[in-house]
Amino acid sequence: MSDVVIVASAFGADAIRRDGHRAWLKTAAQAGAAGFEVRRELFASEAQADPGALSSLGEAVEGLGMWSVYSTPATLYNAAGALDEATLRLAVEEADALGARFVKLQLGGFGADAALGAQIAACMRGARARLVVENGQLTEGGMIRQFVRLFDGLRHEGYLDVLGMTFDLGNWQWPGESPAEAAQQLAQHVEYIHCKAVTGIGARRFAVAPAADDPVCAAVLRLLPRNVPRGIEFPFDPDRVAADASNYVRWLDGA
């Protein structure tokens, strides 16, 4: 069985910005979630990213028996393909203030063979959080070949274990990649999974809850590690948030 994480955005981006992450922790805990993903882009002000504020939020998460993930939309590599050490160090500092188990960044513009594993390791030295990079919805940072080259580069440099991957089932579909093909090539590196289905076409795609018989979700989950945490990253029905949260935690735990 896997730990199930509820991503804050499942409660609605507007609701999180209005009420704050803390307002939804009890609902997540009562739904049976093992973890809660804090989203930096949903902070209403920079003050919420202060160390004291993050520490207090982390204590609230732990007080309800959950552990946390710290997610930032920042990228590990910039548009030119260079490692952004300053961004990584800041993300790690904030994640550690929260007490997070994982710190999650987008991959960004990585395209070279040099992954710079030694520099990443230096940034992570002494960190509590485990670094994971996620496939995004843009071509930059959302292509299978980029992740294959990243992990091949880290292996060649002797730093394969410096980071893991957050595998987002739905995000692959924005740049036109196959989630199943991605899983076949990258499953060995996956340490956290974001679960959602996608509706719409082109740029007008939206995250939705997978149907009970969703063929993509079921097939891809079978290809990925069963023992890594699974995150709910699709919106709950605003008219039945608590019930949806409980139902989907049970569903994803057994899927």
Order of helices and strands: EHHEHEHEHEHEHEEEHEH
Distance between the ends: 9 Å
Weakly predicted, low-confidence segments? none
Total helical elements:
9
Q: What portion of residues belong to β-strands?
A: 15-25%
Q: Biggest β-sheet: count, sense, barrel?
A: 8 strands, parallel, barrel
Task: Name the CATH superfamily classification.
Answer: Divalent-metal-dependent TIM barrel enzymes
Task: Please give the structural blueprint.
Elements: E1 4-7, H1 13-19, H2 25-30, E2 35-39, H3 51-63, E3 67-77, H4 85-98, E4 102-108, H5 117-124, E5 130-134, H6 144-157, E6 164-168, H7 179-186, E7 190-195, E8 197-201, E9 204-208, H8 215-223, E10 230-232, H9 241-254
Parallel strand pairs: 1-2, 1-10, 2-3, 3-4, 4-5, 5-6, 6-7, 7-10
Antiparallel strand pairs: 8-9
Helix pairs in contact: 3-4, 4-5, 7-8
